[in-house]
Amino acid sequence: MPAGTAAVAGVPPLARPAPARWRGWLGRLAPHLVLWPPLLVSVLHVVSFTAYTTWISFTPSTLLPEYDWVGVQNYVSVLNSRNWKIAYSNLVIYGCGFVLLTTALGLLLAVLIDQRIRAENLFRTIFLYPMAVSFVVTGTVWAWLLNPGIGIQHLVRGFGWAGFRFDWLVDREMAIYTIVIAGAWQASGFAMALFLAGIRSVDADLYRAAQIDGAGPWRIYRRVVLPCIGPIFIAVLVILLQFAIKTFDLVRALTGGGPGLATQLPTLVVYDLMFQRGLLGRGAAAAVMLLLSLLVVLLPYFAYARWRKRREARHG
Amino acid sequence: MSALVIRGVRKRFGAQEVLKGIDIAAESGEFIVLVGPSGCGKSTLLNIVAGLEQPDAGDVEIAGRVVTRVPPKDRDIAMVFQSYALYPTMTVRQNITFGMECRGVPKRQQAEALARTARLLQIEALLERKPAQLSGGQRQRVAMGRALVRDPLLFLFDEPLSNLDAKLRVEMRMEIKQLHRRIGATMVYVTHDQIEAMTMATRIAVMHQGAVQQFADPDTVYNRPANLFVARFMGAPPMNTVAARLVGGERPVAVIGAGRPDEIRLTLPAEGGPPPGWRNREVVLGIRPEAIAEAGRRFGAEEGSFSTLEAPVEMTEPTGAETIVMMRLGGEPVLGRVAPDVRPVVGGAARFAVDTRRICLFDPATEQLIA
Ligand SMILES: Nc1ncnc2c1ncn2[C@@H]1O[C@H](COP(=O)(O)OP(=O)(O)O)[C@@H](O)[C@H]1O
Ligand SMILES: [Mg+2]
């Protein structure tokens, strides 16, 4: 940046020729020009549509918005619908399964890659790659893989194991776990990248001290390294949990919410109410409740992050 | 029996040869200091002794056992790191007992060892704190505690005081020295600070560019440096080194600035002089600043072992305890240390006494000590 270099070189601002001064002024202005308009637009966008949706959720809107007040009637009917109850209990199963499996896989991959293996960059890229793929693609590919007629079950039977069964996709009890598997496949590379960055940022002297203290590799990870990356654990859990709550396209492509309501999630309910059944008011109420669930996850996290920062500032 | 033997240790990182054949042997109970400028390979050597790095060649022997292929935990050593390397998520208590926990020491015994160490280092009040809640000096103590809580064959220190402020550093220096005297363990201490080396060591290994330049007791390293590097590295201000010519009949005479009107002739002592082959040859003359003082100083010696000369004074630096004088001898800049109340006039000439017994002569080609 021109302003910065001039300051470093110790040139007094007034001694600079006019074009340089103009450029310096522009240089200082540029970040603001780039940053503020998009930020303003997105804030307006998000805030205004959130507010609008919240308003709609208190109106009797059906196919088109109506602006009468009906109080919490939409909320009551959504909360009492079987569809919503099932969707929420599915979300709990899927959310826990997805977060735990993804964290475990991500951590395992990170620890394996941390062993100074050869071609580390290649593996990192391979594991990160699914994250770059759209959820729709993931959903479609896994729909094929898990389809008993053409996927894994078909393949294994083709090898000669005729009794092999892997039909979770069409099994009411197990279908929700196919979403866990596909979601974990997609996101564990991302968790791995975060964990690996954390593990690598641990002071190398700590490993050495632990080695001299007589700790084996397992104990070094468990007692020294992993506790050091505690904050990263929490960040990963929170990011994954909000992924889980927002999951929509993956399920649409993989199971479409079925069989029956076996993989119905709140996001699908919102979509269904708003755009399939033309119940804008109820859909908006469902959407607001989804937003509240997100806040229940995110607000404590932000509070925690603030607290940590303050504590660090106090102890240096 | 030797507590530690380092035999022909070599190490390279890629194309860079960091250690070029190191040989050091320490007796039991010694305090060995590895000293040298930053990047000379001290930490690498210490890590090889600890087993944290593998040497490309050579052997490490601890208490008579070759441990070159033995992992760190089975070498029975303790180490204090420059960064302290305290486990940030553990309390001071857990930091100190972690090593015993890994070795399966019974809880009762752990508590006893912890209490003893905490008392020794006066950190009893800190045991429940996390490292982030400690000051630099307290962290340093805890790092020492982690090493002292065990009773290892060998203590290794890698610049443990370099992150402390000057006052604390001097205090801890004395404390470590007392500690060594009390527990009588063998210690290897790495530092780039020559004062730490001089004050603490029973023997000093001066390292430079991956090789040991001299391995001897502090007095020898200071007064009879093996080469010009050691002469210039040890001491603050360092040894004066000037070009000179050896002449003379039965007693050798060193001439500084030979042929100039202000040439200086220093008659060297009869014994311990240069070999006869060096007559009429160029040498490098080294002399410590404190061997040049105001005229009249006798250096606790009888007549004839010091000469008096006159030299132009270029600058004086009163430090309180003494006055450092920059003068010219035969055109060469030289530092002397005179009594604090002596203030030679800058720009004028003054008379100085030189302790000729303390003159060292070096071969200008090989830079090695001749006499
Ligand atoms: N793991 C390593 N990989 C590559 N080079 C290294 C490594 N460790 C040390 N070095 C190099 O070896 C030289 C000696 O390092 P070190 O032993 O740390 O020096 P000192 O402790 O004396 O300052 C330095 O030039 C350093 O850059
Ligand atoms: Mg070092």
UniProtKB/TrEMBL annotation, chain A:
A Pfam match: BPD_transp_1
Transmembrane annotation, as ranges: 33-58, 91-113, 125-145, 174-199, 220-245, 283-304
Keywords on record: Cell membrane, Membrane, Transmembrane, Transmembrane helix, Transport
Primary localization class, coarse: membrane
Entries under Gene3D superfamilies matching the protein: MetI-like
Compartment(s): Cell membrane
InterPro entries the record matches: ABC_transporter_permease, MetI-like, MetI-like_sf
GO BP: transmembrane transport
Domain of life, source organism: Bacteria
Gene Ontology CC annotation, any one: plasma membrane
Membrane topology: Multi-pass membrane protein
Domain ABC transmembrane type-1 stretches: 88-303
Recorded family membership: Belongs to the binding-protein-dependent transport system permease family.
Full protein name: Sugar ABC transporter permease
Originating species: Teichococcus coralli
The organism's taxonomic lineage, starting at the top: Bacteria, Pseudomonadati, Pseudomonadota, Alphaproteobacteria, Acetobacterales
UniProtKB/TrEMBL annotation, chain B:
Gene3D superfamilies on file: 2.40.50.100, Nucleic acid-binding proteins, P-loop containing nucleotide triphosphate hydrolases
Originating organism: Teichococcus coralli
Domain of life: Bacteria
GO molecular function ontology, one term from the record: ABC-type transporter activity
Matches recorded under InterPro entries: AAA+_ATPase, ABC_transporter-like_ATP-bd, ABC_transporter-like_CS, ABC_transpr_MalK-like, ABC_transpr_MalK/UgpC-like, Mo/tungstate-bd_C_term_dom, NA-bd_OB-fold, OB_MalK-like
Protein name, as recorded: ABC transporter ATP-binding protein
GO cellular component: ATP-binding cassette (ABC) transporter complex, substrate-binding subunit-containing
Keywords assigned: ATP-binding, Nucleotide-binding, Transport
ABC transporter domain ranges (all copies): 4-234
Family, as annotated: Belongs to the ABC transporter superfamily.
UniProt GO BP: carbohydrate transport
Matching Pfam families: ABC_tran, OB_MalK
